[in-house]
Each structure stands twice: as C-alpha cells, then as structure tokens.
Amino acid sequence: MIILLVLLQGSAAERLKAGVDAALAAKSFTYAFDLKTEIPHSDPFQAKGRGVATHSQTLFSEYQGTGGIDKKIVVTPKGSLIWHAFLEDWVTGEEYGDPGAGHGFQNPFDLLAVIKERTGVAADAEGGLVKLRFEGPAALEMLGKLRVDPGRLKADGTWTEVVATLRDGRLASLRSTAHINFADTGDAQAPGHFEYDVTVTVEAYDRDEKMTWKGIDVDAALKRLATK
After folding, report:
1. What is the mean pLDDT of residues 37-63?
2. pLDDT (tens digit per residue) in 121-153
3. Predicted confidence (pLDDT) per residue in 5-42, tens digit
4. Is 141 exposed, middle or buried (0-12, 13-18, 19+ CB in 10 A)?
5. 3-state DSSP of 49-105
6. Domain ranges of the chain
7. Please, which residues have CB within 8 angstroms of residue 206's CB and are 6 or more apart in sequence?
8. The CATH number of 12-226 is which of 2.60.40, 2.50.20, 3.30.160, 1.10.260?
9. Residue 19, exposed/middle/buried by CB under 10 A (0-12, 13-18, 19+)?
C-alpha cells in the first residue's frame, strides 16, 4: 500500500473536508480494503477485498475472508443484494443471513458521511496525516450512524478513530479502528468487547463504472434494486 501525502494549505479540518468533498464529487473511485475484527466468544475474522463506488451512490464490492467466506455485494440507495453462489442468484442480506452486508464500516459512503459531519474535530497527526477520535458518548453516536446498535454498547472505554491520508486534495486512504465495549444485556455476547480495524486504500479515481464477475449478471442486481 502506497501512502504518499501531499500537504494542502489550511487546517486539518479544512483539508479533510476538502478531501471528502473531492472524493464524493468524483465520477467513481476504485478501492481495496483490509479488515480485521475480534469478537467475544468467536475466532478473529480477517478479510481482504476490492470495490467500486460511483457518484450515484452505487457500490460494488467483493471480499474473501476467514473460513472461506467469499461475498459479492451490490448496494444502491434503495438497498443491497448479495450473490448466492449455491442459488446462483442475487438475494437480500436478510435472506443471506447477513443483513448488515454492504453497510456501516463496510460502506465507504456511510463512513464518508459520518466523517463529513465531524470534520470540525479533525487534528493533525504524525507524518502529516489527519485524525479524528471519538470516545464515550461521542463514539456511541458515531457508531450509531454506522448502523451499530448503541443500545447494546457501553460508553465507558468505547472509542473510535479515523486516520486519513490525502493526496492531491483527495482522499488516498482511510484507516478506521474501534474498541467497542458491550453493555451487559444478559445475552451470550455480553459482557465483552469488539475490536475493529479496516483500511480502505483508493486505487484510482474516475476509472471504473462498476465491477463485473465472470458468469454473474451484475445488471440483474441493479434492475432488481431499481424496482424496490
């Protein structure tokens, strides 16, 4: 992963806002991501993938993860569909058993929207990077925006952090990390904590219109979502 930084004039907040706005204004951006999570009472999970995000807020992504997981996802403002290899058809997240697929931390549009609302707290970090950090109630508010149920979480000890790299006035990469403490709700998952670490690296702007996969009709997913 190449991390080159071209420093822009202005405060960290101004530079970050300009970088987010430039990314969202692009016709598309193609990215790679690397995800690591640690969940209570479960083995660690790792995944690597790629995606294309377009100006129309349409997202195409795929990733391979621990346990042989291989997912291909299409997301539009109207919903999301996952390719089901056994059925050889597109199904909803609920039908697949993964209702959060393609949303929250997995969706750069969701993450950029949260960052854009909070650029005012951005600070300069070592190496010319830009950092946002949220703790306690502020972290729960941010996580709620990313579709994590704040009612299951404990503010004490919970934090989230985003570190951004900028190049030529645009986002080059985002690293999002979180330490999330679960509230003691009496279920098997609590108490405990959840560790999250994902790096999204932009490979190119305005290069790709969508992702395609051999033997899979991507347009069928787009048409089905358009009718929702």
Report:
1. 92
2. 999 998 889 999 999 999 999 998 888 888 888
3. 334 457 999 999 999 999 999 999 999 999 999 887 78
4. middle
5. EEEEEECCCCEEEEEEEHHHEEEEEEEECCEEEEEECCCCEEEEHHHHCCCCCCCHH
6. 12-226
7. 26, 27, 28, 29
8. 2.50.20
9. buried
